Inverse folding.
């Protein structure tokens, strides 16, 4: 993310063509890099916002204020706003009504606060646009007026009414009245909700000591937080230890050595080598993880966890791999290149076969790095030994973005690219002691025989074992064993489980530069959590009624977040820190023992009853 | 009967179909004004009782819409919803509720066009079924 000028960082398609998730990752990574620079100044200029103490409205008769918005002419151009306002006045418990040119304007917030105070309002309905964008604004106004922010409901009379029924003002006005009536019915039954607050253990746990894991650990540690780094093998470095150069030609080994050194000597990082996870308890801000290794077991407390367990090269079972010493994988070729193996200088012909184990029916994904890796290695062989004939047998050459220039360079250097399809994979045999590769050239439509001295297989990338870890942290894994992020485009390093983040090959196959960017992004996301001293949980969570619970266990088994569990009396209890408020257990409880605060049965029935 | 307009209750997931409905508004896509939307956190929150209650309260149709299978904001709530509604649909058939009254769909927050199209389809189907008589509480006829 760094530019050649210290303190200036680059991200997004400004740097090179890329898709949204990559841009989002880089943006987070740039934020992390900037954050490392600024860590000394963190929180020195913050001012705390003071909100007044909440007025206790429990047990009070509802006194509802209804604010109907014109939204300029967006609503009032279709809906008769005054009529809706006057209608609202006739509804039960409504004490105050107003219509506003823009309910979201600063002036209206002042009006709303005054109305709450002067008229003693204890519930607010805003009939305007959509709660998806504007609910937080009005809730803040309520909090400023000392009213609990959950005593609020919106009637969507713009996006879901005036804008979509613009040709029919009469029906649109009728619908607006209905929507206001439903909102008033619901708000009368809403209760003030508290947002439980818990302290955050300002420490991160990183699982995996490869380049991604080390980068995450170092970035978080550079921002001033303690990090525990867990690695199952006896040394740091991971897959990068087997690699030679990046596609831009940078040497990987010196970089990895330096990274290992800086991680091992970092005062904020504790490394646990030859160690693995045995158990995980807790939730965002307060995890307790049991780590076993080197003959001892210890429990580490941490506020965030980053999964960087990486992947590995598939060991092929085709193309004579393992039977003939001249058939190599990419990592083995990289080793030859690193050691300047003399056989490379003498080779007269070298062949690469692409998509070995990738994009096959049983492993349908593309391993992404292998096209560029082959092109780069083909060029390297040409540099060492310009007389060597180099062939790349490929299905589709995916040298994406700026890597395309490398492909062009390889073609100019005389590397020959031959396309094949899945139904006609190349044949590899030994004939009179020599390797013979036969492939049907798709232009000539006839077999071409090659006799390479060196055959490199661009094999698939497999994820390391992920299932147990997925269960520990309650994070999902796809059919191929890669972890699944919270949102493919917009949240590429977060998991759906709060406080758990992801980077590197454990996510999907990616080149080292993308792994590093994603690792820095994960560090930024984890640091935003660690920088807070407390986390607040939503008030809209499910609660069980112990008297009604029949201990059937439905909620326990269906909750995707494992929030419900049996307490010592054998009744279901829901952990508000884990509950996301989806309501699945509420709708599934056969005893009617679970209530969802903010979307309770009674509240929804009230809306249904007033259609 | 020509000016009869059905009333339809829609339970929409906050994260997808409700957003699709918002986007339909932003895009000014027009659809009939018969639908009253109730926002829920997830289609998995919709208790079958809500649907029955809506019919009892005189709704002529009910529409539940959630995230596409596999895209649930809460991982898998919509899959449980799908199972519940398949069962409920069978049950409703037995109770004599016409098939055109209850609708389910999967609409993402980006699919404004699909939202408007589905809304039109639901309204047409409910109109074809006519006013709901079956579940509404009526005063007992005294001889």
């Amino acid at each position: 993310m760094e530019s050649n000028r210290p303190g200036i960082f680059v991200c997004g398609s400004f740097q090179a063509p890329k898709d949204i998730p990559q841009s989002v990752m880089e943006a987070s990574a740039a934020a992390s890099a900037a954050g490392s620079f600024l860590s000394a100044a963190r929180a020195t200029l913050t001012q705390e916002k003071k909100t007044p103490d909440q007025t206790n409205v429990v047990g009070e008769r509802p006194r509802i204020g209804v604010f109907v918005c014109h939204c300029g002419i967006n609503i009032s151009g279709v809906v008769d706003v005054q009529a809706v306002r006057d209608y609202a006045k006739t509804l039960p418990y409504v004490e105050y009504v107003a219509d506003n040119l823009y309910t979201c304007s600063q002036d209206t917030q002042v009006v709303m606060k005054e109305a709450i105070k002067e008229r003693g309002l204890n519930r607010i309905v805003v009939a305007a646009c959509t709660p998806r964008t504007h609910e937080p604004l009005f809730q803040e106004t309520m909090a400023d007026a000392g009213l609990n922010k959950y005593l609020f409901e919106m009637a969507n009379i713009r996006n879901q009414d005036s804008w979509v029924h613009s040709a029919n003002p009469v029906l649109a006005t009728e619908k607006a009245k209905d929507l206001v009536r439903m909102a008033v019915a619901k708000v009368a039954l809403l209760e003030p909700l508290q947002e439980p607050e818990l302290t955050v253990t300002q420490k991160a746990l990183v699982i995996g000591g490869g380049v991604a894991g080390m980068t995450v650990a170092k970035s978080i540690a550079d921002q001033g937080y303690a990090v525990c780094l867990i690695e199952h093998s006896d040394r740091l470095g991971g897959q990068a230890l087997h690699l030679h150069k990046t596609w831009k030609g940078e040497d990987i080994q010196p970089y990895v050595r330096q990274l290992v050194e800086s991680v091992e000597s970092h005062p904020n990082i504790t490394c646990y080598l030859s160690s693995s996870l045995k158990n995980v308890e807790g939730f965002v801000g307060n995890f307790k993880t049991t780590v076993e290794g080197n003959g001892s077991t210890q429990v580490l407390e941490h506020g965030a966890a980053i999964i960087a367990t990486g992947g590995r090269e598939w060991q092929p079972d085709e193309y004579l791999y393992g039977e003939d010493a001249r058939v190599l994988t990419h990592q083995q070729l990289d080793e030859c290149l690193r050691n300047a193996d003399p056989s490379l200088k003498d080779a007269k012909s070298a062949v690469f076969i692409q998509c070995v184990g990738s994009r096959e029916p049983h492993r349908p994904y593309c391993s992404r790095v292998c096209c560029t890796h082959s092109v780069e290695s083909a060029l390297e062989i040409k540099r060492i030994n310009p007389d060597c004939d180099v062939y790349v047998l490929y299905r589709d050459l995916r040298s994406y973005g700026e890597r395309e220039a490398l492909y062009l360079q390889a073609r100019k250097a005389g590397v020959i690219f031959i396309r094949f399809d899945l139904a006609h994979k190349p044949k590899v045999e030994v004939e009179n002691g020599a390797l013979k590769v036969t492939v049907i050239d798709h232009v000539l439509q006839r077999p071409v025989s090659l006799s390479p001295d060196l055959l490199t297989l661009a094999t698939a990338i497999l994820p390391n074992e992920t299932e147990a870890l997925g269960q520990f942290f309650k994070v999902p894994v796809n059919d191929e064993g890669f972890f699944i992020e919270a949102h493919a485009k917009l949240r590429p390093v977060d998991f759906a489980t709060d406080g758990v983040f992801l980077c590197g090959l454990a996510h999907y196959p990616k080149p080292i530069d993308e792994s590093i960017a994603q690792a820095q992004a994960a560090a930024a996301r984890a640091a935003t959590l660690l920088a807070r001293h407390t986390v607040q949980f939503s008030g809209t969570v499910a609660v069980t009624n112990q008297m009604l619970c029949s201990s059937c266990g439905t909620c326990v088994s269906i909750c995707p977040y494992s929030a419900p569990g049996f307490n010592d009396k054998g009744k279901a209890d829901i952990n508000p820190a884990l509950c996301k408020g989806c309501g699945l257990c509420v709708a599934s409880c056969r005893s009617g023992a679970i209530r969802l605060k903010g979307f309770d049965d009674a509240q929804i029935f009230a809306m249904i009853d007033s259609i | 009967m020509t000016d009869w307009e059905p009333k339809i209750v829609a339970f929409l997931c906050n994260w997808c179909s409700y957003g699709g409905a918002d986007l339909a508004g932003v895009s000014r896509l027009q659809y009939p004004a018969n639908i009253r939307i109730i926002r829920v956190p997830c289609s998995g929150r919709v208790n079958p009782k809500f649907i029955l209650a809506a019919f009892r309260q005189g709704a002529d149709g009910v529409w539940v819409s959630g995230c596409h299978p596999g895209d649930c904001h809460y991982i898998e709530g919509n899959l449980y919803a799908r199972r519940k509604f398949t069962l409920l649909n069978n049950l409703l058939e037995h109770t004599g509720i016409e098939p055109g009254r209850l609708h389910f769909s999967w609409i993402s927050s980006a699919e404004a066009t699909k939202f408007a199209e589905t809304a039109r389809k639901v309204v047409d189907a409910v109109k074809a079924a006519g006013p709901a008589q079956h579940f509404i509480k009526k005063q007992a006829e005294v001889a």
Q: What stands out?
A: Chain A has 17 helices and 28 strands. Residues 548 and 593 of chain A are 5 Å apart (CA to CA).
